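Q: What would this chain look like folded?
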Amino acid sequence: MATGLDALQYAGASAHVKALYARLLDTAVWHDLLAARDLAAAVDLLRTTTYRDVIATVEQSGAFVLEQVEQLLWGRAAENSHRTMTFVSGGVRGLLLVWWQQFELENLKAVFRGFDQKMEPAEIQRFLIPLGKYSTLPWEALLHEHSVASLIDHLRDTHYINPLRNAYPLYQHEHSLFAVEVALDIRYYRDLAAGIEHLGGTDREEARRLLGAHLDMLNVLWAFRYRSYYGLSAEEIVNYTLWQTVRTDTAVVRDIALGADPRDILLRVWGEGAFDPELLQSLGPSQEMMDADVLHPQASLLPRIELILRRYWMRLAAREMGGYPFKLGTLLGYLVLQQLEVHDLVTLLEGKGMGWELERIRQHLVRGKE
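A: My prediction, written as structure tokens:
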């Protein structure tokens, strides 16, 4: 719990963030969105919410394009993420800045994908999250490079350059961006871990609880994904993950790589009380899964593992928003809930666009049972 000068710093920041938190969609709005008969009806409902300007911006551009709505929604999350830095300084501000830079990371990966697919700059631009004046990277110049090699060279003054240069020979050999994207991810999330550990006292404890939990989740998900989708060796999987997070280490990653059961890993990392027993039980292999993917039966479980972990993360964030308000946990709790709301909105809109039934959409939402 922050006290003294720290509490004064968090008083202004917490009041600012609480105002942003009040703009998140409530249960009644989510109920109406789920019940909307189709995509058009869901969009009409969003016009009555804090996201009305997102819809207006898309409509003013001419044709209604769902992908543009999604990018603007993530742009809103990026903007609100930057706003949480108001009234804070030092290591806390540094950590919040690193967290915001995840949006730059996603844009960088989009640019690399565009170059790999020989897309024109204007076409790549459509896939970028709008970051406005806050971005630290020269997007216009990056978009007008001529190859993956020249794009990497243009990033020579950033902290991404050494991992990218190390990954480039593998890209040349395999003609796949896999190694490049892994290099970007590992560099960024190591910076996030360093930002957490740079803090002291209760700030570090709260950052570990929420952002450290995110690193735990990613490490587990990456290891399962590399095993199930890519068939990588245990050594490769260890090299392509974070070696140490709050709750995971190379031993956990290696056990996943060697075939550990997802339920055993989740219980080992987070303990008995972290998850709904019924959801955990659903991770057990079924004959239907075995028949659907003989080589990698657990590949079909990955979306379910991810959803279980995100629901756990959401509960952690909601808990931080309660109780004593003048603390870093309040700021981080909002950031997590904002990000998960946008994730769910994108999922819901895509589901409506594909004509999914209400229950099918609900099963894919982090806030599923609400």
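Residues 4-362 form one domain.
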